[in-house]
Amino acid sequence: MKLGSRYLAISASVTAVVLNLTSFSPSSGASTRQSVSASHVVSHAATGKIKTGWIYDGSIADKGYDEEWYNAQVDLQKTLGISASMSQNTPYTSQWTSTALGMMGQGAKMVVDPGEGGTLFYAACKKYPNVACVEANGTPPFPSNSTAVYSENWQASYLEGMAAGMMTKTGIIGFLEAFANTPAPVMETLNALILGCQATHPGCRAVATVVNSWYNPPVETEDLNALVNAHADILATTQNDPSAVTVAQKRGVKAIAMWGDPVKSGPKAFITATNVNYGPTLQLVAKSVINGTYKGGKIDLFGFGKGLSLAPWGPTVPKAVRERVNAAEQKMIHGHNFFCGPIYDNTGALKVKKGQCLSTLQAYYKWNWYVKGVSVSK
Questions:
Q1: Would strands 172-177 and 234-237 be described as parallel, antiparallel, or unpaired?
Q2: Which domains does the chain have, with CATH numbers?
Q3: In 3-state terms, what secondary structure has residue 13?
Q4: Residue 277 — φ and ψ, nearest 5°?
Q5: HSE of 265 in the Cβ direction (CA atoms, 13 Å)?
Q6: Phi, psi (rounded to 5 degrees) for 55
Q7: Alpha helices in 28-146 (DSSP H)
């Protein structure tokens, strides 16, 4: 599970945030390469092939998150000719650090951490300042030779929410939350989903259940059925498997998935899913390592057209839904920010004033409160 990694990264940022994220930004939805601290240039001879290491917390055959990253790894091996060593099911202990140190000690010029080892990974990066460290979903402060890579998945979630709002009859979205109070990717995904749903179905709300795991199909199935019993007619999740679609198919409701295209698990239920391709961004990072221009100390976020996309629509999604959501997606691509005030949290407090908007970085890892309409049972 990814609890250790995401909490390590998030907790490190709570007491020492490099970025000034206390104010809101003007409306903007464009993907930008964000500089967050003093960068460190890592220079290597441009010899073409380089050794790389990849550290996974789970299995690359999970049909979800880890498989997405593995696909990017294979892409780099094929297109850039890099060599890659990898570690799967790596525990969140000192073994994480020793695994990274072993890869670096054996000549890896770039070590990629899809498992989000946080401070466990950074401990190794600090000992090898000339190695390019690349982490999924990283948050500052991190070593000057580190880069955080992630998708603006909240953009896709908002669009999915719009579709859900047009298709729900009860106005209730049932949501499986992997872990409670994790800003990225869980809270931002849920928040954006409900804001999108409220845009097309005022009064839309979410009933969320915490699973305490990224992958546990039996527990997920039980919880999803309970959500349907509580009148949720659309199911959504950040889990690594298609349980939401499978349950929705059996119960006669609809579902949105987080990873991949699980339409085969429930063609009548499936609405869409978030597709993430880390390949294009990692290509740029790896090329900079090869040619000696790599700079760490930044967050590389990518949105629509740069690796983020919606999965093909399910066969039962009405044409009117597709057209409205597709039009909103085009607005996102051209820079429109849908996350503007007034936005209230689920206690009724005004969090984003009228005329103000969440910035990209705020949505990425500072969105640590639930929006109005979200209730969570733990």
A1: parallel
A2: 3-152+277-302 (3.40.50.2300), 154-274+314-377 (3.40.50.2300)
A3: helix
A4: -120, 105
A5: 21
A6: -115, 115
A7: 65-80, 94-105, 119-127
Over 50: is that where the pLDDT of 145 sits? yes
Within the chain, where are the H helices? 3-15, 65-80, 94-105, 119-127, 153-167, 188-200, 217-229, 243-251, 279-291, 319-333, 360-361
Q: How far apart are CA 170 and CA 227, in angstroms?
A: 12
Distances in Å between the Cα of 204 and the Cα atoms of 113, 169, 177, 196, 197 are 37, 10, 18, 9, 6
Report yes or no: 130 and 166 within 8 Å, Cβ to Cβ: no
CA distance 217 to 213: 10
Tokens at 360, concatenated: 């990209």
DSSP state of 363: I
Three-state SS at 354: strand
What token pair was written down for 158?
Answer: 């908002």
pLDDT in tens, 89-99: 999 999 999 99
- Of residues 185 and 291, more confidently modeled: 291
Strand, helix or coil at 137? Answer: coil
Tell me the CA distances in angstroms from 71 to 17, 57, 133, 203, 231, one per residue in order: 32, 16, 19, 39, 37
Q: Which of 52, 147, 54 lies closest to 107 in space, CA to CA?
A: 52
Is residue 209 within 8 A of residue 175, CB to CB? The reply is yes
Q: How many CB atoms lie within 10 A of CB 331?
A: 12
Q: How confident is the model at residue 61, as a pLDDT?
A: 84
- pLDDT tens, residue by residue, 213-258: 877 889 999 999 999 999 999 999 988 778 899 999 999 999 998 7
DSSP state of 214: S
Query: What pLDDT is attached to residue 260?
Result: 59
Three-state DSSP class for residue 23: coil
DSSP assignment of 231-273 equals T--EEEE--SSSHHHHHHHHHT-EEEESSS-GGGG-TTTEEEE
Encoded tokens for 67? 């498989």
